[in-house]
Amino acid sequence: MADATPSTRSFVRLRGNTIEVFGRSLRLPANRLARMGLGLAFIVGGLLSFLPVLGIWMLPVGLLILSIDLRFVRRWRRRTEVRWGRRQQRRTLLGTTEPTPRELANNRWRRFVPFARR
Fold it and tell me: Where are the domains of the chain?
């Protein structure tokens, strides 16, 4: 049976009080203050990432939750999505991926011959 949702390549989708991340939907509180408190709690937890349970992964989740209610965070998120989408589109059109640092280092040494050997 076909899905009712269109297939897109986005990892995150906001729909009202629901966030879909990697195909899983998470319901958030309907109360604006509760959502903002939850978002701030995730950001504080991300800043305390040196503790065992908390991690740096909490920062983007907190910003994502805050982007539902705060205009400037929403703008930042949308700009980031547009930049990421354009980058992915360029990569697909070119059919290449960016080289790894190791490949760059290897090519750098192969490409430039030392002056003494010329």
Answer: 12-112
Q: Which residues pair with 18 in a beta bridge?
A: 15, 27
Between residues 101 and 4, the one the model is more confident about = 101
Spatial separation of the C-alpha atoms in residues 67 and 61, rounded to whole Å: 10
Residue 96 has pLDDT above 50, yes or no: yes
First to last CA, the chain: 67
Q: What is the pTM of this model?
A: 0.62
* Contact by Cβ (8 Å): 22, 29: no
Rounded distance between C-alpha atoms, residue 25 and residue 72, angstroms: 24
Closest CA to 17 of 58, 59, 68, 79: 68
